[in-house]
Amino acid sequence: MAQTFANVVPPQVRNRRRGAPPATRAGRKMRSMYPSWFYIPAAALYVVLFAVPTFASFYFSLTRWSLFDVHFIGLDNFVQFFSDPQLSQAFLHTLVYAVITSGLKVVLGLALAVLLTSSLIGRGYLRAVTFFPVLVSTIGVGLTFKVLLDPFDGVVNGALSVFGIQGPGWLTDPNLALISVALVDVWKGLGIATLIYIAGIVAIPQEYFEAARVDGASAWKVFRNITFPLSWPATGTVVILSLIGGLRSFDLIWAMTKGGPGFSSDVIASVIYKQYQAGFYGLSTAGNVVLFVVVTAVMIPISIFINKRSVDS
Q1: Arithmetic mean of pLDDT, 129-153
Q2: Is the pLDDT of residue 286 over 70?
Q3: What is the mean pLDDT of residues 40-50?
Q4: Of all residues in the chain, what percent are helix, strand and coil, respectively (each to 5)?
Q5: C-alpha triplet 131, 133, 137: angle, nearest 5°
Q6: How far apart are CA 224 and CA 4, in angstroms?
Q7: Is 189 within the bounds of a domain?
Q8: How many angstroms separate the Cα of 313 from the Cα of each of 103, 194, 205, 277?
Q9: Could you tell me the CATH number of the domain that includes residue 204?
Q10: In whole angstroms, what separates CA 177 from the centre of its chain?
């Protein structure tokens, strides 16, 4: 008997829309299939490669250090870091950059994934083209777009002039520099977001789509009731990865603008690097600790919310 579109939506999704309480995780505890000692090598590697450097960074952020001596100075590095007038501006730029890049990667990645999982001619080729920018070096992309976006000799403004449009100073206008770099970041990282969404959409049981077609559901209804809610785990992964990347972004910004013009595209990571270049190693280490705290404070509540929605889905 053919399924109908009315019952094609999974019970969990229907219950959530009706205000029903989400499914609980009680009784889902699973026993490990390996003995405890099996985890010791991995734990040792984790401690040596991750835990020790992390705690060492916390210690050195409280010191004035060089390669030859270390002096403990307490919280002076943090006081000096937060008294930097560039910091508040860089902090705002970091949040704007992360929101723009992650938001566009979610929207465009989902749209491209829906398109590239349909019966499209040349689908494999288009998938390869979409993923190609991910394979290119970030510094190479930054330097290339710096030439393309040159206000006088760049290809972009040259193409606009053919239509009688005078292109702006993409990287020299303080109001456009950060947004221009963010758009290049979206272009480069969109392939990863699309790939994650394609994996999420392909994993949806085809019976749901077949039942929707039997019932004559429109493409928008199929997307709204099946594709979007059931690809929520992929959305969570894209949001988390792109937000972390956006908050920590440095190499592309440095390659294209070096934080300029002025301080208009400075982010926390570029401020830290400038302090490191100036020889303030303890101060730059304190900045890294601040960046770690900021990323953690932003990502923990978002991760909890996304994981809760993923369980409900």
Answers
A1: 91
A2: yes
A3: 91
A4: 70, 0, 30
A5: 135
A6: 16
A7: yes
A8: 21, 20, 14, 48
A9: 1.10.3720.10
A10: 20
- Chain center to CA of 136: 17
Angstrom distance (rounded) from CA 46 to CA 248:
22
DSSP 98: H
Tell whether 11 is covered by a domain.
no
Name the residue with tokens 């928008």: 220
Residues of the domain holding 270: 96-312
Q: Which helix (H) or strand (E) holds 285?
A: helix 281-312
Number of domains making up the chain: 1
**Dist CA 278 CA 285 (whole Å):** 13
160, two tokens: 């606009």
Helix (H, G, I), strand (E, B) or coil at 93: helix
DSSP 22: P
Two tokens, residue 90: 């860089």
Unique residue bearing structure tokens 């270390």: 70
Q: What tokens does 74 get? A: 């307490």
Tokens 């929207």 belong to residue:
107
In which region does residue 165 sit, left (phi positive, over 0), alpha (psi from -120 to 50) or beta (all else)?
beta
Burial of 177 (0-12, 13-18, 19+ CB in 10 A): buried
Among 171, 139, 168, residue whose Cα is nearest residue 251:
139
Distance CA 273, CA 70 (A): 20
Confidence band, pLDDT 50/70/90 cuts, at residue 255? very high
From the CB of residue 195, how many other CB atoms can be counted at a distance below 10 Å? 20
* pLDDT surpasses 70 at 87: yes
pTM attached to this predicted model: 0.81
Cβ-Cβ contacts under 8 Å for 97 (sequence gap 6 or more): 178, 181, 182, 185, 246, 249, 253, 267
Domain assignment present for residue 91? The answer is no
Query: What's the confidence (pLDDT) of residue 313?
Result: 60
Identify the three-state secondary structure at position 32: coil
Residue 126 lies in a domain: yes
Q: Which residue is it, tokens 């992929």?
A: 234
Backbone angles phi, psi at 215, to 5 degrees: -80, -5
